[in-house]
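Notebook, student rotation project (T.W.).
Task set for the rotation: take a protein with a known small-molecule partner, predict the structure of the complex, and write up what can be learned from the model alone. Partner molecule chosen: pyridoxal-5'-phosphate. Sequence and SMILES entered below by T.W., checked by me.
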Amino acid sequence: MSSRRKVLKTLSALPLVGGILGPSMLTAKAVETTIAKPIARDFFKELGVRTFINAAGTYTSMTGSLMRKEVTEAINYGATEYVNLDELHDKVGERIAQLLECEYATVSSGAFGAMTIGLAGVICGMDTEKVAQLPDTTGLKNEVIVQEAHDIGYTHALLNTGAKLVQVKTAKELEKAINKNTAMLWFLNANTDMGEIDREAFVALGKKHGIPTFIDCAADVPPVDNLFKFTKMGFDLVAFSGGKGIRGPQSAGLLLGKRKYIEAARLHTPPRGTTIARGMKVNKEEVLGMLAALEVYLAKDHKEEWELWENQIKLISDSALSVKGVETEIHVPPHANHVPSLRIKWDESVVKITKDEMRKRLRDGHPSIETVGGKEEVGITTWMMEPGQERTVAQRVKEVLANA
Ligand SMILES: *Cc1c(COP(=O)(O)O)cnc(C)c1O
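Predicted structure of the complex:
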């Protein structure tokens, strides 16, 4: 049986999927890249943990993304031999730097871990006494300047070093805030449009005052160009999540940028102990998984993938629109989670169900489907789905709305 027919057969075996929505949108290529399914033991079933179709996106609470078989193979391979941990990190760091055309790189424990070790590297340099001193920053540069609109929860990763944050709004305020204790300037790419200082100006301010700049790009692939763009723009350090758009291990990430800071950041990580990042260990399995995921991501046809997402979103949108009183909006967030996305809205006096109840019914149905949104809309993306699941989602969305 061809893999395409296998997928279709599996789909038609699912309840509530009747092939009602017309011809399959699966391309042979899309099927080839589906994840490797676990064999034999069904752990989630055994544990009574329900799996679901992810129509939401890359959420930590939903365990992020699914790994391609090249990635799980790399992880399995890594689990079978001993190597020297530092040597492996050194070599993979070089390889990633080459792939992403930057000075140096390391695999971190998520984007969050990248932020902590990156700042720790900036603060302590190669001085191992200082490394051992953190999170006590007495006598060390310990202030990080951020734009107020960028200071959302993720800045806690910076506080983990013992540093403190200094909020500013304008370039003028930023320059005034710089003093002998200023360690770093930190930028949140997702909130680019909410701050007054843009990326180029931010980098220029860092250079003017000789202070390193760091940009958090955790959720900023796609587009693939972002993996190259910000180191080339002049940011000293750049962080990406490994387990979002790149679909590597969910607890891995990438720290890219200047060699001197990344080598210093590594001094805080295992195998060294008595450091703040001893608990942010990235062992061989995840190092190899991250490398494999990055290679697969760079090699893929991004245009084709984008078209697939657009078609999937349109299919779900059309299905929702077939219910009277329902409106949809297709949009692409400009920064972070930059993928075709759908908002489904309705007048609750016409379609008599709240948005919360709609999400709950999708979650409680068969198969379970996770969506996002607030009081005004149900939000859907398809980039974290496996090909074919969009038809199940389209069908269920229509059913729940039509039966409201
Ligand atoms: C997801 C995210 C993080 C955390 O990334 P992890 O890879 O889960 O550690 C940090 N910053 C932003 C903006 C994010 O979206």
